[in-house]
Amino acid sequence: MDSKINTRIQKLEFLLKQMDKLHLRDAAEILNVSEMTIRRDLNATVSSIVLLGGYIVRDPQLQSSNQYLITEQQNKNIAEKMQVGKIAAALVEDNDVIFFDCGSTIPFVASQIPNSIKFTALCCSINTFMVLQDKPNCRLILCGGDYSRENSFLTPVQNNTEIDRICTTKAFISAAGVDIKQGVTCFRLNETQVKLKAMAKTQCSILVFDDSKIGKVRQSYVGELNQFDQIICNVPLPAGFTMTN
User: Fold this and answer.
1) CB neighbours of 215 closer than 8 A, spacing ≥ 6?
2) What is the largest CA-CA distance in the chain?
3) Domain 1-58 shares a fold with domain 70-233
4) Is the C or the N end of the chain the one with fewer CB within 10 Å?
C-alpha cells in the first residue's frame, strides 16, 4: 500500500476510535485532501472502516460489543485537535521520556507520533494508553490508581507513584480553560494534582489546547501561562496572553 494512503487510513481509523461516525466532508478537511481521494483510499484498501451514506464508520461486521466508550469532549473540535496534535507530536525525539496528561486533546498528540521513534511514555489516561499501545517503539508505563469513567483517568491512590519518581524530558499538559486573568484551569482537582506533579518532574512542560478553550475558566486552577516552557494551540493566542512576567 502507498505510504500516503496508509497514513491517511491510519488517521481515519484513529478518529473512528474517538467517535461513532465521521462525515466524508469533515474527513477531507482534517486530512487536507479531496473527498474523492478518501473515496479512492477506502476502495483501494482493506481496513476496519467503510463509507456508508456519506459517513465514514467502523465496519459493522468488525464491531465488538466491548467497544471502548469515550467522553463527549473528545468528539468536539476534531480538526483543531488534530492540528494541535500534529504540531506537538513533531517535538517528540528518539529516547525521549514523555508524560502524557489526560484530556481529550492528548490522544491526538500520541496518535501522530511516527512509529519509527523510540521513546518512553508515562500516562494516567486509558484513552491515551489505547493509542500508545499501538506504537511499536514505545515503552509504555501506565500509572495505576482509582479509575474514573467520566474522564478515563487514573487518580493515584499512593503518595509515591511513578509520576513522583520518573523524571521526564517532556510533559504534554492539557487544559479545559485558558484565560488571560484566571490562567490555566481544568475540570477536576484530582487532574490538577497530577498535572502539577508532572510539571515539577519534567525538563520541558508543554501546554496543548485548541482554540475553543481560550477565554474559558473551569473550577480547578492549574497555573499561569508563564509556568509552561512551550504553548501549542491551533491559532495564535489573542493579544494580552503572554508567557512572561
Assistant:
1) 177, 178, 179, 180
2) 56
3) no
4) C
d(C-alpha 169, C-alpha 167), whole Å: 7
Instruction: Count the alpha carbons within 13 Å of 139 in the hemisphere toward its beta carbon.
Output: 8
Q: Say which DSSP state 214 is in.
A: B
Pair type for strands 177-179 and 183-186: antiparallel
- Helix residue ranges, H only, the chain: 3-18, 24-31, 35-44, 78-89, 106-110, 126-132, 162-165, 189-200
Instruction: Give the residue-averaged pLDDT of 94-102.
Output: 97
Q: Are 207 and 228 in contact (CB under 8 A)?
A: yes
pLDDT, average across residues 79-106: 95
Topology adopted by domain 1-58: Arc Repressor Mutant, subunit A (1.10.10)
pLDDT digits (tens, 9 = 90+) for 124-135: 988 899 889 889
User: Which single residue is written with the C-alpha cell 528518539?
Assistant: 94
Fold category of 70-233 in CATH: Rossmann fold (3.40.50)
